[in-house]
């Protein structure tokens, strides 16, 4: 809940992190104070401290879930404009963003959670975002190839956590006209979906990989579908993965 004083200003401890956004939850650590001019040598030291935030990269269910989300809606990139190594997510589901936020904290990163301000006449849904900064995580993630990822997810619990994150990003479940459910993962990376298909097979699910399908629109990449309409499998999938969002039952 965002708290304001009688003049509509943010109260201490809950402050918008950037122009055009509304702060929901700041990180635990503060590296810069708004409106304070630090000497350049202190600014450099603080930036180094920010980049060297040491995440826990030992594989846990939290890290496996994070990797699944990053292979879908999440992103890891370097911003030349701001000179930052960013791990982030934007989504209309606040519950999904909160879970992503908590997972980042669980691996010792220092994320912020906020909401983009609505622009008149643009968009019908609120858009939430989570961002964290870590050069260490950025370099580790960029070296993580699909074969390495597959080897890393060696236990059933880790596979389930990874698939949960990927499903909440790229998965969908809906009722068809015949009132039967259909489960699908849709992505432009066919090799990634092949890895996901293998992981699903190893925990007892057999989905069909189809495609590529030509996408409409200029510059859009062909899409692949990993899917099933088997009702028992779908019910078992939801029970096993236990997603926070996109629950059909």
Automatic annotation (TrEMBL):
Provide the GO MF annotations for this entry: endonuclease activity
Taxonomic classification = Bacteria, Candidatus Nealsoniibacteriota
List the InterPro entries hit by this protein, alphabetically.
Homing_endonucl, INTEIN, Intein_endonuc_central, LAGLIDADG_dom
Residue ranges constituting the DOD-type homing endonuclease domain according to the UniProt record? 66-205
Q: Which domain of life is it from?
A: Bacteria
Organism expressing this protein natively: Candidatus Nealsonbacteria bacterium CG_4_10_14_0_2_um_filter_38_17
An individual GO BP term: intein-mediated protein splicing
| Record's protein name | DOD-type homing endonuclease domain-containing protein
Q: Which SUPFAM superfamilies match?
A: Homing endonucleases (SSF55608)
PROSITE patterns in UniProt:
INTEIN_ENDONUCLEASE
Pfam families according to UniProt: LAGLIDADG_3
